């Protein structure tokens, strides 16, 4: 039975999970509060992965967003993966994200903020898939590359996965052929399709979202005070 067919067996060893499977929300706390709690117990680095402007922490600029999130009881992912390590973006960088999706996606801080927005739309798996494909391209060890490729397939392409991304039949056929002999470019077509989907569908809404507008205001105030 091939990969992706119903009843498939997942590989239990060496998996590097990019997200957590949904097992049902705890009605007493929000997804972000679970994440903060897990960060406290599992990550004891003296410096956080992101600054107070980032969506991963409870800061003033997104206080209203956090309050709305605490009122929400439904989520596709039980917990949130670590943010990418990044520095605080400049006001010029934040403004540039409004003029270019490419600049947004090339900036780690931009990706973190965009991920927060995608999370509110229950489509964060699109960004996680794109990031996993980028990581796959940096893997040069054949065994490591094959393992990562099959993990990406199981996590984001398999119809059995709760994090399955939306791909058309043509792209799925290409992946099903390539996954038999995985390479760092197995998901190139799929990655481009998801990138295009985020660009055309999610990006315009992100620019009009409270998350991005609040960040603009916060960065603007910081610049004027300095």
Structure report:
The protein is mainly α. The protein has 10 helices and no strands. The longest helix is centred in the last third of the chain and has 20 residues, at 188-207.
Percentage of helical residues?
40-55%
The helix-and-strand class reads: mainly alpha
Poorly predicted regions: 2-25, 27-53, 55-80
Order of helices and strands: HHHHHHHHHH
Mean residue pLDDT: 76
Let me know the CATH homologous superfamily: Regulator of G-protein Signalling 4, domain 2
Briefly, what CATH class? Answer: Mainly Alpha
Q: Give the CATH architecture.
A: Orthogonal Bundle
Largest sheet: none
Please provide the count of β strands: 0
Number of helices: 10
Give the percentage of residues in beta strands. Answer: under 5%
Radius of gyration: 18 Å
Kindly report the CATH topology: Regulator of G-protein Signalling 4, domain 2
Tally the structural domains. 1
């Amino acid at each position: 039975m091939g990969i992706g067919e119903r009843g498939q067996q997942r590989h239990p060893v060496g998996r590097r999970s990019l997200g957590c499977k949904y097992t049902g929300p705890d009605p007493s706390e929000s997804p972000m509060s679970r994440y903060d709690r897990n960060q406290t117990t599992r990550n004891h680095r003296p410096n956080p992965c992101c600054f107070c402007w980032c969506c991963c922490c409870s800061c003033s600029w997104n206080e209203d967003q956090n309050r709305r999130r605490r009122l929400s009881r439904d989520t596709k992912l039980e917990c949130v993966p670590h943010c990418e390590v990044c520095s605080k973006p400049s006001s010029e960088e934040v403004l540039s994200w409004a003029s270019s999706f490419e600049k947004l996606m090339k900036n780690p801080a931009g990706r973190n903020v965009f991920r927060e927005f995608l999370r509110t739309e229950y489509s964060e798996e699109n960004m996680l898939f794109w990031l996993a494909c980028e990581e796959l391209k940096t893997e040069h060890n054949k065994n490591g590359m094959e393992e990562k490729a099959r993990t990406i397939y199981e996590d984001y392409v398999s119809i059995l996965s709760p994090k399955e991304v939306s791909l058309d039949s043509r792209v799925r056929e290409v992946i099903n052929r390539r996954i038999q002999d995985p390479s760092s470019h197995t998901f190139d077509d799929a990655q481009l399709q998801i990138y295009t989907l985020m660009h055309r569908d999610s990006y315009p809404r992100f620019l009009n979202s409270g998350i991005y507008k609040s960040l603009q205001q916060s960065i603007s105030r910081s610049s004027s005070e300095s």
